[in-house]
Amino acid sequence: MFDFIPHSTELTKLVAAEITLVYHGIRHGHSYLSQACTADVSKKLFQDSTVGKNLTCGRTKAREIAVNVLAPFMTSQITEMINKSGFYSLSFDASNKGHKKMFPFVVNYFTVRGIERSVIEVIELVNETADHIVASLREVLQMNNIDIQNMTSIGADNTNVNYGRIHSVFSLLKSDIPHLKKGVLLLKKNTHVPNHNVFF
Q1: What percent of the chain has pLDDT over 90?
Q2: For the packed helices 169-176 and 130-143, what is the interaxial angle rounded to 10 degrees?
Q3: What pLDDT score does 189 carry?
Q4: Domain boundaries, the chain
Q5: For residue 192, is pLDDT > 60?
Q6: Against a cut of 0.85, is the pTM above it?
Q7: Are 147 and 166 in contact (CB under 8 A)?
Q8: Which fold has domain 86-199?
Q9: How much of the chain, in percent, has pLDDT values that exceed 70?
Q10: Which of 136, 138, 108, 102 is closest to 122 using CA atoms?
Q11: Distance between CA atoms of 139 and 145, rounded to whole angstroms?
């Protein structure tokens, strides 16, 4: 009667294939359009496979899998590792994307493998004031259940808004986190990817 619905094992394999395809695309920086094209080619290549011929992963579906399945899962895994490690440092740096000001928040923390670096959130900020940055930073940490008191340092470029004496991101955070240390964000050459914090 319902022979158009694959058996649960086939459905599970199909879902796993689509998620794997999207994960692979993200890992290698492929666009959703590229992923849709790969799915179409895979359908033609693997026509004799139930999974292959039923594979559908267009741009919209790929984005939904990335944003609503993979991102929350990966973020929860990262958050769990950060909380297990106890202490962490946080780096951020504003970046212009067209007319938007984007802020990636990168957390450095220890695991048994050594120092790990993970992006926990990328937000858009209209105002780049110390108050707005600190409010956003607090919101990101709270949203991800990361205790702000476990932050050991912040890493950012050496501007007044970040490290000024009177009213800066560092001074606002230092009033709540007395053990907080200053760090300077070093970027990998010719990129906007944080390399590590240097303390002074």
Answers
A1: 30
A2: 50
A3: 54
A4: 8-77, 86-199
A5: no
A6: no
A7: no
A8: Nucleotidyltransferase; domain 5 (3.30.420)
A9: 88
A10: 102
A11: 10
